[in-house]
């Protein structure tokens, strides 16, 4: 006599026998950002940042690989020189844009 196979009762198609294992999670590499403003970094900030359309602390950290406090100092320095102008002043995020030579 032939044995009849029982139909799987779960909706996963019979693969419910293996228990799902927890993943270890992804390991993010530690960022190696500059913490001291040296001459090449200063020259790069003064040359590149005024050409950005949207300037914020997080943009400088991401593009120029500098520390957060260094990015804040650079932004305030550029604003005092008049190379960038403030759009939004919020306690959490300051947003700037490049100064247009036509207006102001």
UniProtKB/TrEMBL annotation:
<dbReference type="GO" id="GO:0005840">
    <property type="term" value="C:ribosome"/>
</dbReference>
<feature type="compositionally biased region" description="Basic residues">
    <location>
        <begin position="16"/>
        <end position="25"/>
    </location>
</feature>
<comment type="similarity">
    <text>Belongs to the eukaryotic ribosomal protein eS25 family.</text>
</comment>
<protein>
    <recommendedName>
        <fullName>40S ribosomal protein S25</fullName>
    </recommendedName>
</protein>
<keyword id="KW-0687">Ribonucleoprotein</keyword>
<dbReference type="Pfam" id="PF03297">
    <property type="entry name" value="Ribosomal_S25"/>
</dbReference>
<dbReference type="InterPro" id="IPR004977">
    <property type="entry name" value="Ribosomal_eS25"/>
</dbReference>
<keyword id="KW-0689">Ribosomal protein</keyword>
<dbReference type="GO" id="GO:1990904">
    <property type="term" value="C:ribonucleoprotein complex"/>
</dbReference>
<feature type="region of interest" description="Disordered">
    <location>
        <begin position="1"/>
        <end position="30"/>
    </location>
</feature>
<feature type="compositionally biased region" description="Low complexity">
    <location>
        <begin position="1"/>
        <end position="15"/>
    </location>
</feature>
């Amino acid at each position: 006599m032939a044995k009849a196979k029982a139909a799987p009762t779960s909706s996963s198609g019979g693969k419910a026998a293996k228990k799902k294992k927890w993943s270890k999670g992804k390991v993010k590499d530690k960022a190696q950002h500059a913490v001291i403003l040296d001459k090449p970094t200063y020259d790069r900030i003064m040359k590149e940042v005024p050409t950005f359309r949207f300037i914020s602390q997080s943009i400088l950290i991401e593009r120029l690989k500098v520390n957060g406090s260094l990015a804040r100092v650079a932004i305030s320095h550029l604003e005092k020189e008049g190379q960038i102008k403030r759009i939004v002043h919020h306690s959490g995020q300051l947003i700037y844009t490049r100064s247009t030579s036509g207006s102001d």
